[in-house]
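Reposting from the mailing list since nobody answered there.

I have sequence plus structure tokens for a pair of proteins and want to know whether others read the tokens the same way I do. The first protein:
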Amino acid sequence: MKKNNKAYTVGWVVLLIAIVAGLALGQARKPQSLQVLRDEAGVLNATAEEQLARYNADWDESYHSMVAFVSVDRVNG
């Protein structure tokens, strides 16, 4: 009976180590914050671009997600 308890304990320890290692690797490999704001049409002024960049930074900090803003003068197709 003692042998089974040891195996059970070792199993839990190995599981916890795997979870901690997975979390550590996930945090180490997460992408760096990327700011994407392209105004190829030239329709945004500096204030609007700054505000959109702040919104993007807030989204990244709060939800760990990125929003891309792209302004084009026309769409073909």
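The second protein, same order (residues first, tokens after):
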Amino acid sequence: MINIEKEKKENNIIDLKVTIDNEKVKQEYNNIYRELSQKVKIPGFRTGRVPINILEMNLGKEYIDQQVAEKLIKDSYTDAITNSELDPIDVPNIDIVQIDKENPFVYKIILEMRPDITIPDLNDISLEKNIPTVEEKEINDDLERIRESHGKLISVEDRPSKMGDFLIVDYTALVDGKPLDEGKREKQMIQLGDRAPKEFNDNLINLQPGTEKEVIMKIPADAADKDLAGKEIIYQIKISEIKEKELPELNDDFAKSIGDNYQNLAELKEHIKKQLFERKKYQSETEFNETLMEKVAEKVDFETPEVLVNKQVENMMNNLQEDLKSRNMKLEDYYKIIKADEEKVKKEYRDIAKQQIKKELIIDKIIKDDKITATEDEVNEKINEIAQSTNQKPLKVRAMFEKNNTLDNLTEQIKREKVFELLTKRIKVTEK
């Protein structure tokens, strides 16, 4: 027989005291003695015939107690959690209180629970919501970017280089008079303009194919690469070819070449307009929802669980390291650049993490209290929306979610959207 007692402590901690009666304990000790007698080889005793006192003398009473405790906990732990009707937010800890073959077995399960959250009246919150509009210039700018991406490079022979040109060059990079490792390249493409270093734009303009030119670039003293910081790199460059981008004419044929779904330029522009509107709408709603949750969080008072905050900080630190790794930067160098250390960064992350966890717990509470769900029809509708905005077929979009095992994420997104719709109805909203 199992007896369970609840004991509430501070900071949403609950102890479950689990007591297993002595008969069950004795039975388990006998089972363990029998198993060990079959496994353990002790000189002078046949397998399966080793007396209990000899087993305890050779293996130690603590070892046998531990084997019994592990088996009793394994057999009772799940039922204890389920019967207690508690929903812990982290893996519970276990403390053994009493283990002895002549007495009941007693252990405690220490659980950290979700905090008790009460959502107050929100009608005193007033927020302004932006209604997105799309200007003709924005459509034309996007259309020009598409046109630019479909341009073709053609060789130029009747003029010198100018801004916007693509130069095919061979170069050698020198530091302190010596070539850099892998600093020699042939047939490299450089586009003069915003993306090129100023030194290249200043020195590689008004030149003919076949021209050789030296370009000196000063590396900042605080550069991440300490071997090059503060030094000069001399690029010995030879221009072998000049190319310019020839853009297609904006007409119905161009629209048809973009994809099978556009019959003319007007249809392409309409699609661009829809995409721009959806992008702006998403941005506006995201900013509104973030502000809304900040206002709601200010009105809801509860102790944010430390275990969740600590895990969020750990995730944020891991993401930081992965981001720095992708940029070939060490964590130590990053700390020097921002004039901080790990302790300071973690403290700043902790404040952010605490607010993030608080908002997520509030959202979870509303989902639970209002029994918010996402139906299969709603999931299909969301897939259709994504398909339309990305100009794909719904089946292809669903297949992508299924392949990445992210359909559950889509379900959660729908539930969260319902939470924001619900909260929006409880506050005062003005539109502009």
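Reply #1 (J.P.):
I read it the same way you do. The chain has a mean pLDDT of 91.
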